[in-house]
Amino acid sequence: MDKPVLFAYQIYLIVLFSIIHSAQGLGKIIFAVNAGGDSHVDIYGIKYQKDPLEGKTGIASDYGRQYLNIGRVPEPDAILYQTERYHHSNFGYDIPVGEDGDYVLVLKFVRFISTVFDVTLNGVHTIVSYLDIFEKVGKAVAHDEYIPFRVTKGKILVNDEESELVGKKIRVEFIKGNQDNPKVNAIYVMKGLLEDVPKLPPLAGSEGDEDDVEEKPIEKDEPSSVPQPSGTSSTSPKKKREQPKIINPYSDETSTLLPIFVAIAAFVPFLFCLCKL
After folding, report:
1. Which of 218, 150, 233, 222 is nearest to 189 (CA)?
2. pLDDT < 70 positions in the chain
3. Distance (Å, rounded) from C-alpha 112 to C-alpha 134?
4. CA 20 to 30 Å from 75, out of 199, 215, 247, 270?
5. How far apart are CA 104 and CA 150, in angstroms?
């Protein structure tokens, strides 16, 4: 891709990300770490701290810095995917959770070779199973995992399972595979709902199926109202696809469509630049 085209595309991504952010509320960030790297504030205002495991557990790597452009990510936030922490055995992060409520754990990954591993929450719940980032999105392309969970009365509810919350902390752990080392590029936990979390854009040339967020049920006594088709695959056997929202016919259509109009307006200059080249 020519440099002018690439630059125009990066500007368009930044504008589009800003529009999406302005159209949605961002919940309270209670934990954010740039694994293997320094502190960073992303385009949404999320403040990632320097990796607290530095010099304690695992190995920090900045191998990704040789890739100046990470797919699906605006250039200012590429740093979150250019550094990572990996280990030759299991490793994890302890995350303080002091209040009852809904939360979303976001795990950020990018891979340059195929690596397969699992991720667990609180030592009990397998929240990501047999994750092969390279197979999912390819080389040097970002992939995020979104895991909703709920804390209530000293218990954690996730994947239609529950476990005890000990010391007002949860632990996310990356489990070594048979041959591969586990890794992660960045992590954050937001107090809020899945719909409040900024999502990566769809893969280029796809219909966005790869990045359909699969919401995991958190209520044990709440059956799915829509049957799932057989043969649907996911990273976790208990995941269920989030059902499309029902639009309120009495809502203000102007406020609903405004972000779309702005996005179209932002796209026109980008299209003009392509035509001029």
Report:
1. 150
2. 1-25, 205-277
3. 7
4. 215
5. 8
